[in-house]
Specification:
alpha/beta; 4-stranded parallel β-sheet; 8 helices
């Protein structure tokens, strides 16, 4: 009954707000999330061998990391980049559903995960955008794998600048904007930290540091895309 209700809602919305592909902005059916061409383009993208531990290319494992491993779906380029930008601009959230499905498939081999924690967004920014894209991706993973999402653990203090508009030094200072629930007991928990893009790893690393400070035994970073560092 719930599925029928959701489908009916999508059909009605499609009449007034036609469904569009988040990657090319082309019109698509009400029950599609990405057009066939963009799906094909994404599947044909070459993955630049992101390190399975730090999630970066080139590897930065020797820089001092608090998370234990990383899953990165695709490089931040082409249709993937367009899909991420469409979420960040508040135009289209379809890509969150697509990314969540792909990341869930990558995580099927992971055992005994206790919860998924989205990289937080400030309350003011979330109100302005209407959602936190990391939460949307996490919700889809949760729906598929049955792992609960915890939005009551990490919090972001308001920052005027978006992460993607900050330079490397400013990103490294992200820990100044993060807070953790002081009453949280994460003893021996295995946690997934989820976000849309990994650039320098400073954000997910700062999140992992806080989670480990509350007793987390293992933190896995899960990202919809990753940039390739220039050397």
């Amino acid at each position: 009954m719930k599925l029928i209700s959701e489908n009916l809602k999508k059909i009605i919305l499609d009449i007034f707000y036609p469904n569009r592909c988040p990657c090319c902005n082309g019109f698509i059916r009400w029950d599609e999330i990405i057009c066939d061409k963009c799906v094909s383009d994404i599947e044909e993208m070459e993955n630049p061998d992101f390190c399975p531990l730090c999630g970066r290319n080139p590897c930065i494992c020797d820089s001092g990391l608090f998370y234990d491993r990383a899953f990165v779906y695709k490089p931040y380029d082409g249709a993937i980049r367009n899909g991420v930008i469409s979420m960040k601009r508040g135009n289209n959230t379809n890509f969150a559903e697509y990314a969540g499905e792909k990341l869930a498939a990558m995580l099927e081999s992971c055992q005994d995960i206790d919860c998924i924690i989205p990289v937080p967004m400030s309350a003011a920014k979330k109100r302005s955008r209407g959602y936190n894209q990391a939460e949307l991706i996490s919700d889809k993973i949760s729906e598929i794998l049955g792992i609960p999402v915890r939005n009551d653990i990490l919090f972001m203090i308001y920052s005027k600048k978006e992460q993607h508009s900050k330079n490397a030094k400013q990103r490294a200072e992200i820990k100044n904007y993060l807070e953790i629930n002081e009453n949280a007991d994460l003893s021996e928990m295995k946690i997934i930290i989820c976000d849309d893009v990994i650039t320098t790893s400073s954000t997910v690393n700062a999140c992992a540091e806080l989670l480990k400070s509350k007793g987390a035994a293992e933190v896995t970073a899960v990202l919809a895309s990753g940039t390739v560092l220039k050397i």
